[in-house]
Amino acid sequence: MSSVPYRSDFRAPAIAAPAASKTRRTPWRWLYDAVMLSRERQTKHEVDRLVGRRGGAFTDALEREIAERFYAGDSNFRR
């Protein structure tokens, strides 16, 4: 008796691809997505500026400062 399975036993079952949905975004969803994208870009820009002002090295202290500013709910990184 062999304990090694045959190669044919390793094939994954075929799974049908999900049908593409053609849902349209509502104007409110479009606005929300635009605002969130803008805030994300602004945050990345401010973090890049902060890292640049601190010498360009991403240290533990700098990471801690960024986290403190982010979690404090301060929407304005400039201090």
What is the chain-wise order of helices and strands?
HH
Strand content: under 5%
Total number of helical segments? Answer: 2
- Taking the alpha carbons of the first and last residues, their distance comes to 74 Å
Shape: flat
Strand count, sense and barrel status of the largest sheet are: none
Helix share bin: 40-55%
Radius of gyration: 24 Å
Q: How much is the average pLDDT?
A: 79
Query: Low-confidence segments, ≥5 residues, pLDDT <50?
Result: none
Structural class: mainly alpha
Q: In total, how many beta strands?
A: 0
Describe the structure.
This protein has 79 residues and is an all-alpha fold. The chain has a domain at 25-79. The protein is 49% helix and 0% strand. The protein starts with 26 loop residues before the first helix and ends in an 8-residue tail after the last helix. The mean pLDDT is 79.
Summarize the helices and strands and which ones pair or pack.
Elements: H1 27-53, H2 60-71
What's the short story on this structure?
With 79 residues, the chain is an all-alpha fold.
Features:
single chain, 79 residues, mainly alpha, 2 helices, flat
